[in-house]
């Protein structure tokens, strides 16, 4: 199952790979409330524990400069989920990790540039995120749109950035973990 972590291949030294492009499935059986690991990464339960301990994380689209932001001491840890879309990963993570109900905006999105706003550019993936977040939380979740370079600065302060295969424009999302 892709949300379980695997040791990186030698070519990605210092980067942890999640799922290596396998289809995302839910790690949780709703009826029993028991974790049901599946697939080749099912043995690596520490990955799930890691996701539950992260205070802030970014789910980054394919265009996000993850390696640049994570390169250096004191920077976020880089994880790879190549081939996995952010909506599927977000759904799986929120099955295990609640959002912070005590902050105004537990979800932050990279906002459109002024040029794209002037063109009327639409970001349909944001509505998918809203549906996923609202499905997992007891109250509607507030989202904040953050200017692109400010989003990069905030990303430098998170614990982990999970670089995905998401191809939708402006799909980057920053999550604040709540109390389990």
From TrEMBL:
InterPro entries attached to this UniProt entry: RbsD-like_sf (IPR023750), RbsD/FucU_mutarotase (IPR050443), RbsD_FucU (IPR007721)
Keyword hit for Cell inner membrane: no
Catalytically driven reaction(s): alpha-L-fucose = beta-L-fucose
Source domain of life: Eukaryota
Keyword check for Transferase: no
This protein's UniProt keywords: Isomerase
E.C. numbers: 5.1.3.29
Example of a GO MF term: L-fucose mutarotase activity
Pfam families registered for this protein in UniProt: RbsD_FucU
Signal peptide: none
Top-level enzyme category: isomerase
Record protein name field: L-fucose mutarotase
């Amino acid at each position: 199952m892709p949300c379980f972590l695997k040791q990186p291949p030698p070519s990605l030294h210092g980067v942890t790979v999640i799922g290596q492009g396998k289809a995302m499935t839910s790690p949780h059986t709703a009826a029993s409330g028991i974790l049901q690991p599946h697939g080749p990464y099912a043995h690596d339960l520490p990955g799930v524990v890691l996701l539950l301990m992260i205070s802030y994380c970014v789910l980054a689209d394919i265009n996000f400069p993850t390696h640049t932001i994570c390169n250096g001491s004191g920077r976020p840890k880089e994880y790879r989920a190549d081939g996995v879309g952010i909506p599927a990963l977000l759904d799986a993570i929120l099955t295990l990790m609640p959002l912070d109900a005590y902050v105004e905006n537990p979800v932050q999105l990279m906002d459109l540039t002024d040029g794209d706003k002037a063109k009327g550019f639409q970001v349909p993936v944001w509505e998918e995120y809203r549906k996923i977040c609202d499905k997992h939380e007891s109250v509607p979740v507030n989202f904040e749109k953050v200017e692109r370079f400010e989003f990069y600065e905030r990303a430098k302060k998170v614990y982990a950035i999970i670089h995905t295969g998401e191809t939708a424009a402006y799909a980057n999302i920053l999550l604040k973990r709540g109390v389990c």
